[in-house]
Amino acid sequence: QLQFVESGGGLVQPGGSLRLSCAAPGFTLEAYAIAWFRQAPGKEHEGVSCISSSDNTVYYADSVKGRFTISRDSAKKTVYLQMNSLKPEDTAVYYCAAQSFTSDHYCTGVKAEYDYRGQGTQVTVAA
């Protein structure tokens, strides 16, 4: 059973940056597509970004495109979400999710397609 450790959240001013990390102790994550989701109070879960298990396919929601970058460090068994030019509307709990899809070129921002997810880390963007 995958269990995730997410870190890197915190309070940052608008325009600032944070880097979120997602790791699963005891697992390499190389066979899994990894996605980042977020949920703000009173709002639906939003698929922010994902990366396929082959790392050949990445996806970004329109709301973060050009500002966020997802990457995988296989040696460190960690997936990162670099978040730049943060805005107050980026405030949410961010969590990672994993799924081993049939295709290693596939990932999706649809939460229901992932069986494993972490507890999340809070990101607050405020002056």
Account of the protein in words:
It contains no helices and eleven strands. It has 127 residues and is mostly beta strands. Strands 2, 4, 5, 6, 9, 10 and 11 form a seven-stranded mixed sheet that branches. Strands 1-3-8-7 form a four-stranded antiparallel sheet, with no helix packed on it. The radius of gyration is 13 Å and the shape is globular.
What is the molecular shape?
globular
Q: Which structural class is indicated by helix and strand composition?
A: mainly beta
* DSSP strand content: 35-45%
- Mean pLDDT across all amino acids: 95
Uncertain residue ranges: none
- Helix residue percentage: under 10%
Order of helices and strands: EEEEEEEEEEE
Q: Could you give the count of β-strands? A: 11
- Measured on Cα atoms, how large is the radius of gyration? 13 Å
For the sheet with most strands, the description reads: 7 strands, mixed
Number of helices: 0
| Span between termini | 39 Å
Defining traits:
single chain; 127 residues; mainly beta; seven-stranded mixed β-sheet; four-stranded antiparallel β-sheet; globular
Ordered list of secondary-structure elements with their pairings:
Layout: E1 5-7, E2 10-12, E3 18-23, E4 33-39, E5 46-51, E6 58-60, E7 68-73, E8 78-83, E9 92-99, E10 116-117, E11 121-125
Parallel strand pairs: 2-11
Antiparallel strand pairs: 1-3, 3-8, 4-5, 4-9, 5-6, 7-8, 9-10, 9-11
Quick gist of this model?
By secondary structure, this protein is mainly β. The protein has strands at residues 5-7, 10-12, 18-23, 33-39, 46-51, 58-60, 68-73, 78-83, 92-99, 116-117, 121-125.
